[in-house]
Write a structure and sequence with these properties.
alpha/beta, about 60% helix, Rossmann fold, rod-shaped, Hypothetical protein af1432
């Protein structure tokens, strides 16, 4: 352990070093100039300071204040050596951060005993900090593993929906990517944008409960068939309801609200404006745009420019105007994303 000893008297400094040299497992750093001690403290982690009070260039209290400004030495024990008897000096030293006082002339036995005790305390503090840091790292790693598993489950469930729905062309992964771009553009923090990105793939999870003949029908659905199709929203909400994780809660909000419309003409509840969860409003834009660009059994794929024009035309009626504005501002990235997916015709996460 490293001990810094600061005293402007060379003879006193030599005596202090001799007194403490018998303490095992310590390195002693002796200074007559406080400035040199402060300079070294920026490069060396000290475990204890012995500081004289009466020094011409910088007194002990001033030195202690500067030592305490370094976060690495904020909790390090500091012993002030002084022959002063003025009580106010001790109070000022305590306020500056002194741990203990030893009167001059120094009693060698007392000094060694106090230094050993404070070094033992410092060692215990270091061990506690190490254990806390190790525990924090372990918790962080476990949290990352849980998040990775949760993410994997999300994408595998989304893949199952894709197989059920018969979509091709990476619909789910593109909806997720576009949703994240819109969320970031709206000023949402990175973690919330990531949550939306991960939850978006489950927006149509309720289609698991819809008959295959409706999902794959190559023509416009009849009124009763469309009513049955709309039930995928309620099914999805039931699947994701009462989740404990924030991710599942957001996924539930998206599944239940991505077919609502800004003007209140959507389903299942006819919600309007800000009554629709923001996450659902974001995904609604991404979902409709990507669906227009994708070929389905009942329609041809639109060009990206035509699909963008339709989204913009629906601002304030179908879509939240702020979400559409964010979509437009992110258009270069969205266009690149669509081109990249189309050129590679693959997804790193799901099969279409």
């Amino acid at each position: 352990m490293n001990i810094a000893i600061i005293d402007d008297s060379k003879s006193v400094l030599v005596s202090l070093v001799e007194t403490l040299s018998s303490i095992a497992s310590t390195d002693l750093f002796a200074y007559t100039d406080p400035a040199s001690a402060l300079s070294d403290s920026g490069r060396t982690d000290f475990d204890l300071f012995l500081v004289d009070y009466a020094m011409p260039k910088k007194n002990g209290i001033e030195l202690i204040r500067e030592v305490r400004q370094d976060p690495r030495h904020a909790g390090v024990p500091i012993i002030m050596l002084t022959s002063e008897t003025d009580h106010s000096i001790k109070i000022s030293a305590i306020e500056a951060g002194a741990t203990e006082f030893i009167s001059k002339p120094v009693d060698a036995v007392e000094l060694r005993a106090r230094v050993k005790n404070l070094l033992a305390l410092r060692d215990a503090q270091a061990e506690l900090h190490f254990r806390a840091t190790t525990l924090e790292a372990a918790v962080s790693e476990a949290t990352r593993e849980i998040a990775a598993r949760e993410e994997e489950i999300i994408w595998r469930l989304a893949k199952a929906v894709e197989f059920k729905d018969g979509h091709t062309g990476n619909h789910i992964s593109r909806v997720a990517d576009i949703s994240r771009l819109i969320a970031v553009e709206l000023g949402l923090d990175e973690e919330r944008a990531r949550m939306i990105y991960l939850a978006a793939p489950l927006h149509d999870i309720g289609k698991i409960g819809i008959p295959d003949e409706l999902l794959g029908k190559p023509m416009k659905l009849a009124a009763d068939e469309f009513a049955r199709m709309k039930q995928h929203v309620e099914i999805g909400t039931k699947i994701l309801a009462n989740g404990r994780s924030e991710l599942i809660k957001i996924a539930c909000a998206i599944a239940g609200g991505h077919h609502e419309k800004w003007d209140g003409s959507g389903y299942p509840h006819g919600l309007a404006g800000d009554h629709i969860p923001l996450e659902a409003r974001i995904v609604a834009v991404a979902d409709v745009f990507e669906a227009l660009c994708s070929e389905r059994p009942y329609k041809r794929a639109w060009s990206v420019d035509a699909a963008r024009a339709e989204v913009c035309a629906s601002s304030g009626s179908h879509f939240d105007p702020d979400c559409v504005a964010a979509f437009v501002r992110q258009w270069p990235q969205i266009l690149a994303l669509m081109s990249d997916h189309g050129a590679r015709n693959m997804s790193p996460r799901v099969a279409g």
